């Protein structure tokens, strides 16, 4: 009898540890994760695309007797330096809900708020046909609540995570509509979907854990930095070939010098070189994967996606 009870206790402990482990893995507040979010700005005189990088700091902050972790945003290509990560807001989780605390001014439900407030960003307790009001952003942009129209699951990091779709969002088109994923967050930004002038959109590109991609939204890239001059640049002015490389890449142009940078999917510059003539560059040292090749001549900037086999 004692042997049976002993085995039963061991089984219960094992099951409990698996449940706890699963819950930890599904937490958004994971300091080993990074999120790459594409911000597209379409102002009247500008067209810009650039990737915002987010991560969670291990440094905690107590506000109103509640423990928050800092939500950090990268301000520079070199994300290895702590100084290039700035606190964006404060974030916490409780009972499958994610809360954000901010000191920013906001307007919600006809009321102006100019003092610190806490908002619910995500509520993974929602069921089919439940509603959710976006209250963090300017309320007039979201006067109607989000309505849960589909709930399914998606495999991430060898586990299944709950996915909630709102207002008939389509799983086959990640850029349309709004949906949430446990452990990942929104298919948009941590905070924004649109700005006050409706000139900006945010799209989650990829999420990482311990520098490995655990979620790819399917855009074909995880990093981009593009502005008006790049859009208007003559694509034939600087030639790059091949874009699928084994070891070497060729650069040719009729104008020099050219400043070349190789950016990885985390936004880190892994290689830089000044080019003064047509040249073949050895990139055999790169790990397999996708990179952004940034080439600049005076005010002209051109980005090229390359893949190292």
In short:
By secondary structure, the chain is mainly β. The protein is 9% helix and 50% strand. It has two domains: 27-226, no CATH class; 232-308, Immunoglobulin-like.
SSE diagram, text form:
Blueprint: H1 2-25, E1 33-41, E2 48-63, E3 66-74, E4 85-94, E5 97-102, E6 106-108, E7 111-113, E8 117-123, E9 131-132, E10 146-156, E11 159-166, E12 178-181, E13 185-186, E14 200-209, E15 212-216, E16 225-226, H2 228-232, E17 238-241, E18 244-245, E19 248-253, E20 258-263, E21 269-275, E22 279-282, E23 289-297, E24 300-308
Parallel strand pairs: 18-24
Antiparallel strand pairs: 1-2, 1-14, 2-3, 2-16, 3-4, 4-5, 5-8, 6-7, 9-10, 10-11, 11-12, 12-13, 14-15, 17-19, 19-22, 20-21, 20-23, 23-24
Describe this protein with a few key phrases:
five-stranded antiparallel β-sheet, mainly beta, nine-stranded antiparallel β-sheet, elongated, 309 residues, 2 domains, Immunoglobulin-like, disordered N terminus
Q: What does this protein structure show overall?
A:
There is one protein chain. The chain starts with a helix and ends with a strand. It is elongated, with a radius of gyration of 23 Å. The strands form five sheets. Strands 1, 2, 3, 4, 5, 8, 14, 15 and 16 form a nine-stranded antiparallel beta sheet that branches. It has 309 residues and is mostly beta strands. The protein contains two helices and 24 strands. Helix content is 9%, strand content 50%. It has two domains: 27-226, no CATH class; 232-308, Immunoglobulin-like (Sandwich), CATH 2.60.40.3080. Residues 2-24 have low confidence and may be disordered.
